[in-house]
Structures are given as structure tokens and as C-alpha cells.
Automatic annotation (TrEMBL):
UniProt family annotation: Belongs to the methylmalonyl-CoA mutase family.
NAD in keyword set: no
Occurrences of domain Methylmalonyl-CoA mutase alpha/beta chain catalytic (ranges): 40-509
Alphabetized Gene3D superfamilies for the sequence: Cobalamin-binding domain, Methylmalonyl-CoA mutase
Signal sequence coordinates: none
Domain of life: Bacteria
InterPro entries: Cbl-dep_enz_cat, Cobalamin-bd_sf, MeMalonylCoA_mutase_a/b_cat, MeMalonylCoA_mutase_a/b_site
UniProt-listed SUPFAM superfamilies: Cobalamin (vitamin B12)-binding domain, Cobalamin (vitamin B12)-dependent enzymes
Name of the protein described by the UniProt record: methylmalonyl-CoA mutase
Pfam families: MM_CoA_mutase (PF01642)
Length: 682
């Protein structure tokens, strides 16, 4: 038999898990295998290896998409029948600019018209504003997604009046024009009127849409307010689920059926940096929402929730912003693998201001590359059956359900927000994230690691002030209120809009006079903010003084002996906008002290190998303090306790090492240099 024939017949034996564990322990050189287990922000232990055993322990898995609780996807054909919606949120400085942007982007691959009223820099107040935005936009060819914030009835009335004036059938509109009062309450801490009245508006809008715009969803459940405050995946799922249950109960109390509510509900979640966790989150979301709707008696189609997904603003940065393209691409990939029905990819300059044509194009093309070049849509549920993803999905769903039940025990989502339970839970995780960012255990490329002090900043034009709101016409408000008294709120609001009543006037007529409860809002922030604040302060100081702040590195010995620690110190201080002035490698204390005398520094750090320090550092410290009594001297690396005392006695002010809180180190330096800081970011 030839060698080739033998090769064809050869088979590789499958090693057992026990064999792998033995080999892995050898690689760890005696350390336990548990060292490879990591804990997530969700307090889920992630193992280094998942096998068939893990999946078998979960019980029977869903085998096909479009069935059961839709863990594997809401549609049997996945994206092969219909791709996800390229649903880029568009913002612009004015209604006419918005109109130009949306037509431009629809011609270049966007497949859904998407806006968020609260994030526009102008107010959409009248039918004329709607006309300026939608003039020439083919609503018959594209779905429309409008995040209306706490209330949607006023905007829906403006849109309906505009369509009637143009002779466009209301029934031709599809997509989502929805409100999320609990999400707005969590974000802002207050509401425009009582929660009960907003539930009334939600029910009225939903009843009207059922008859007039049957393909439009009117209820949004947004997980972003929690995600953007620092929540983990379990919290985002649980609090979104609790909000949905609140809306279902409110709708049932107002004469809707569970199918009426669920089929007009859209869930919107953010996707962050933890790739597999985010895939699992979307899969778990479908399972959990199906489970809840089934418990309320909803039919099969009602259990198939629609998922809109946004790449995370929480992970984006002001500095080195082009890296945000890579972050958004990975997050978009997770969204698609997780089975999103529509996706918004953050423009890379999102944290800097309004996106321009270039940043919108890159964000949009990120989705189109996944669809057209990576062919991700050709495979239905590519993550299905993965031992890791299936296990993580089940664990996430289990933990989210437990937290959801705790919210229910507290009286539901509104009561949990009012009592501060939700805020406290989110803040606890946010603090853990912040601590890990400050110590650089959580790495942000281009910000707290690998910062580029020479980067050219992205310039954004200053935005003009938002339109000044016109005073309310109190007589018109009174007339609208009188017309509402007969019921049929939507019809009355549309008639008022046709008579050129503004959205604010329609909203004012709907206020019921009940007290609005103020709560502590969940503040949206970004992981990069702590270091961005320090770097900005350092840059402003440099502009005032004409020179950039710097630390001086006293390097010991040849490059191979000091480079690692010199790079570490330089990278740490660069995260705060501080440069590192490096010396050559010194062979003697005398050479080092001579260099110190000839430099104009205030903070010096010794960089070298551990075994070079005992003979060098004490003598250097004594001479250093004589040469520069007002300067600070540190060593890079953490010395043993006895040597640390010896160094301190000789005049060393401290050490900077991997365990140091980098943020605190930079704050201390900037403060000692007289840099004005605004205080803690959080």
C-alpha cells in the first residue's frame, strides 16, 4: 500500500477531556486548571473548554430556527429569505439636511428609515417639519423606525396628517413608531406626564395602529438605558423583560389582548464588546420574551419577538476614534450571528458629535460587507450547537429570569425604578467596570493602553443651538383637550395636526394633571471617559503653557534589561496625555545623576530589571535627592516588601507596577503639576 493510501485511511484518535486536562495542567506548570476559569461581569464562570457534556447537561436543545421559543432564530429560513434590516439611525442639523442624508443613504444600501426624536438636534413640531424631512422619501419601499421616547401619539398624529395630505394610504406604512416611557424615565429621571397617562397614550396609539397601520409596531422595549449606564447582560435582559411585562399588563387593563400588545412590540438591545456574551444575550432574549408572552396566553406568532440591535455607544472612544470602526464591526458581527432583525452600527465619530457622510458610509458598509462579502446571511444560526454559546445562552437566560423575578417581587419595573432597586443594581456593576478600567484590567485600545499622543484629532463642526420652542397656543390646547373628551384620541390629534397644531400642543392637551414622580436617573457614560477626562486636562494645560507634561525615565543597563518596564511606564502615562522622556541605559549611578541634573523634570521613574535594582536604586535615590530635592523618584515594578522599605529609607517615593491603579497614578501626577481636574467622572 502506498504512503498516500495509508494517509487516506489514517484517523486521528479523539483525546478524552481527562487527557486534555492533564496536558493543560502540565502547561500551567503545576498551577490548578481553575486558573483558566474567568468570571464575567454577569458573575458567570467561563471555562477554558466546553464539550458535549456541557450541552447534554442542559437537556434537549431547540433543533431548528423558527420553532419553540426561537432561541435559534425567529424565522425558519433565517436571513436567507430576508436579510436583517440595515437600520442606521440618521441625525442631521435640520429637517432639510436630514432629508438629504436619508435619501443619500437609502440609495447606497440602507434598507430602513430610522430616527430617534430625542437625539435629533432639532424639534419635530409640526406637519411641515415632517414634510421637510420626508419629502421625496419613498415610504412605500422602506420600513420606518421611529424611537419617539416617552410618548409617541403626538408624532404619530403629525405623520398621519402628513400622509393624508399627500394621499398616501396609512396601511402602506410598516416598521415601528414606538414609545418606551419606562426607558425614558430610567434615562432622564422624570416624565412629561404621569406614567398612567402615558400608558393610556400607548394603548390608544396601539388600538389605532391595529386598524389603520397594521404593519406598524407602537411599543418599544429598550435595553439601552441600562446597558449605557454600565449594566451587564443579565441586567439588560431582566430589566427589559420586566418593562415588557409592565406594558403588557397596562395594555390588558386598557382593553387590548396579549396578542395585540406583543405583535406591536419591538425589543431594542445594545451589543457590546464581549463577543460571545452578546450573541448569547440575543438568543436568550428571544427565549425569555417567548416564555413571558406564552405565560400571558399569547399565540405562537405573538411569541416571536422582533429584535432591533444597536452597537454600543458605551464602548466607543473620543481618542483614536478610528478604532471605533473595528469595535463596531465586531459588535455588528455579534448582532448578526445572534439573529437581530434590524441593526444600527455606530458611526466611528458618534462620541464626537453628528455623524458626517463619511462616518455614516463606513458604518453602513460594515453591515453591507457582512451581508454581501462575508456571506453571513447564507448560514442559518451559525452559533447554533456551539457547546460554549449554547451553555452561555442557557446560563444567561437562567440568571436573567432570576433577576426578573426579583423585580416582580418588588412590585414590577415601575416600582423597582421608583425605589431605586434598578439603579443600585446597575451602579454596582458600573463601579466594577470603572475600577477595572482604572487599573487597566479592562483594556481600551487607544485610550488606557496604546494611547497615541501624536494623533491628529477628528475635527467636528460646532452645532448650532437647537430650535427655540414656540410658546403654546393655550386656546388651541383647550380646543384639542375638548375634542379628546369624546374619546378616539388619535383621530382628534390627527385633526388638530391637520389644523397645524404642534406636537407640544397635542401633548399638552393630553396631560392629566397627576403628579409626575421623579427618580434617580441611570446616567449614560462611556468606559473611556475617566482617561479621556485626564488627557483633555493635560492637553488644555499644554495649550496654556506651551509644552506637554512629561515624566523622565532613568533606564538602567542595556535596552534588553529596561525596555519592557520603560514601555510600560510610557504607556501608562500616555493614557493621561503625559509624555515619557527616556534616557539611555546607564551603567552607573554617577551617569544617571548627571543626566538628572541636566534635565528639567519633576517626576523620575527608574526602569530596569529586578536584579539590577538592589545595587543601583538606594545609591541613586540618595544622590538624586541631593541633586533634585523637590523632585519625585519612583521605581517601575513592585519590589519585595523588605526592599521596598530599603528604597523608601533611601528616598524613593514609591513604585508603579501592574497592580497600580493607573488612573490614580496619573491623577496624582497631574495634581502635583498644578493641572486643574474637574473631579471624578462618576
Amino acid at each position: 500500500m502506498s504512503d498516500v493510501a495509508k494517509m487516506k485511511e489514517a484517523a486521528f484518535p479523539a483525546p478524552t477531556v481527562e487527557e486534555w486536562e492533564r496536558e493543560a495542567e502540565k502547561s500551567l506548570k503545576g498551577k490548578p486548571l481553575e486558573r483558566l476559569v474567568s468570571m464575567t461581569y454577569e458573575n458567570i464562570a467561563v471555562k477554558p473548554l466546553y464539550t458535549r457534556r456541557d450541552v447534554e447537561a442542559l437537556g434537549p436543545l431547540e433543533q431548528y430556527p423558527g420553532f419553540g421559543r426561537y432561541v435559534r432564530g425567529a424565522r425558519p429560513k433565517g436571513y436567507r429569505g430576508e436579510p436583517w434590516k440595515v437600520s442606521q439611525e440618521i441625525s442631521a442639523a435640520s429637517p432639510s439636511d436630514w432629508n438629504e442624508a436619508v435619501k443619500h443613504d437609502l440609495e447606497r444600501g440602507q434598507t430602513e428609515i430610522h430616527l430617534a426624536l430625542g437625539r435629533l438636534p432639532f424639534a419635530v413640531e409640526s406637519v411641515d417639519d415632517v414634510a421637510a424631512m420626508l419629502d421625496g422619501v419613498p415610504l412605500d419601499r422602506y420600513s420606518l423606525r421611529v424611537d419617539a421616547g416617552a410618548r409617541s401619539l403626538s408624532f404619530l398624529a403629525l405623520l398621519a396628517a402628513y400622509l393624508e395630505e399627500r394621499g398616501v394610504p396609512l396601511s402602506s406604512v410598516r416598521g415601528a413608531i414606538g414609545m418606551d416611557p419606562l426607558g425614558a424615565w430610567a434615562e432622564q429621571g422624570t416624565l412629561p406626564c404621569s406614567l398612567e397617562r402615558l400608558y393610556d397614550e400607548m394603548a390608544e396609539a396601539t388600538k389605532w395602529a391595529k386598524e389603520q397601520m397594521p404593519a406598524v409596531r407602537t411599543i418599544l422595549v429598550r435595553g439601552e438605558p441600562y446597558h449605557n449606564g454600565g449594566a451587564n447582560a443579565v441586567q439588560e435582559l431582566a430589566f427589559s423583560l420586566a418593562a415588557a411585562v409592565e406594558y403588557i399588563r397596562a395594555g390588558l387593563d386598557r382593553g387590548l389582548t396579549v396578542d395585540d400588545i406583543a405583535t406591536r412590540m419591538q425589543v431594542s438591545l445594545a451589543v457590546g464588546a464581549d463577543f460571545f456574551m452578546e450573541i448569547a444575550k440575543l438568543r436568550a432574549a428571544r427565549r425569555l420574551f417567548a416564555q413571558v408572552i406564552e405565560a400571558f396566553g399569547g399565540g405562537e406568532s405573538a411569541r416571536r419577538i422582533e429584535l432591533h440591535v444597536r452597537t454600543s455607544p458605551f464602548t466607543k472612544t473620543v481618542y483614536d476614534p478610528y478604532v471605533n470602526m473595528l469595535r463596531a464591526a465586531a459588535e455588528a458581527f455579534a448582532a448578526v450571528v445572534g439573529g437581530a432583525d434590524g441593526v444600527h452600527v455606530s458611526p466611528f465619530d458618534e462620541a464626537l458629535g453628528l455623524a458626517d457622510e463619511f462616518s455614516r458610509r463606513i458604518a453602513r458598509n460594515t453591515q453591507l460587507i457582512l451581508l454581501e462579502e462575508a456571506h453571513v446571511a447564507n448560514v442559518i444560526d451559525p452559533a447554533g450547537g456551539s457547546y460554549y454559546v449554547e451553555t452561555l445562552t442557557a446560563k444567561l437566560a437562567e440568571e436573567a429570569w432570576k433577576l426578573f423575578q426579583r423585580v416582580e417581587e418588588k412590585g414590577g419595573m415601575a416600582k423597582a425604578l421608583e425605589d431605586g432597586f434598578v439603579q443600585t443594581e446597575v451602579e454596582a456593576v458600573a463601579k466594577r467596570r470603572l475600577d477595572r478600567v482604572k487599573t487597566r484590567k479592562e483594556k481600551i485600545v487607544g485610550t488606557n493602553v496604546y494611547a497615541n499622543l501624536e494623533e491628529t484629532p477628528v475635527e467636528k463642526p460646532k452645532q448650532d443651538a437647537a430650535n427655540v420652542a414656540l410658546p403654546l397656543d393655550e386656546k388651541r390646547v383647550a380646543d384639542i383637550r375638548a375634542s379628546l373628551a369624546g374619546g378616539k384620541w388619535m383621530e382628534a390629534a390627527i385633526r388638530a395636526a391637520c389644523r397645524r397644531a404642534t406636537a407640544r400642543e397635542i401633548a399638552a392637551a393630553l396631560v392629566d394633571g397627576n403628579a409626575v414622580v421623579a427618580i434617580t436617573p441611570i446616567r449614560a457614560w462611556r468606559l473611556a471617559e475617566p482617561f479621556e477626562q485626564l488627557r483633555k486636562a493635560a492637553e488644555e494645560h499644554a495649550e496654556r503653557t506651551g509644552s506637554r507634561l512629561s515624566v523622565h525615565l532613568i533606564n538602567i543597563g542595556p535596552l534588553v534589561r529596561h525596555q519592557a518596564r520603560a514601555d510600560f511606564i510610557a504607556g501608562l502615562f500616555a493614557a493621561g496625555g503625559v509624555a515619557a522622556e527616556r534616557s539611555d541605559g546607564f551603567a552607573s549611578v554617577a551617569e544617571a545623576v548627571e543626566w538628572v541634573r541636566n534635565t528639567n523634570g519633576t517626576h523620575y521613574i527608574v526602569c530596569g530589571a529586578d536584579d539590577d535594582y538592589p545595587a543601583f536604586v538606594p545609591a541613586l535615590a540618595e544622590a538624586f535627592k541631593q541633586a533634585k530635592p523637590n523632585a519625585k523618584l519612583y521605581v517601575a515594578g513592585k519590589p519585595p516588601e523588605e526592599l521596598e522599605r530599603t528604597y523608601a529609607d533611601a528616598g524613593v517615593d514609591g513604585s508603579i507596577h501592574l497592580g497600580s491603579n493607573a488612573y490614580d497614578v496619573i491623577v496624582a501626577f497631574l495634581t502635583e503639576r498644578g493641572v486643574a481636574l474637574d473631579g471624578e467622572v462618576r
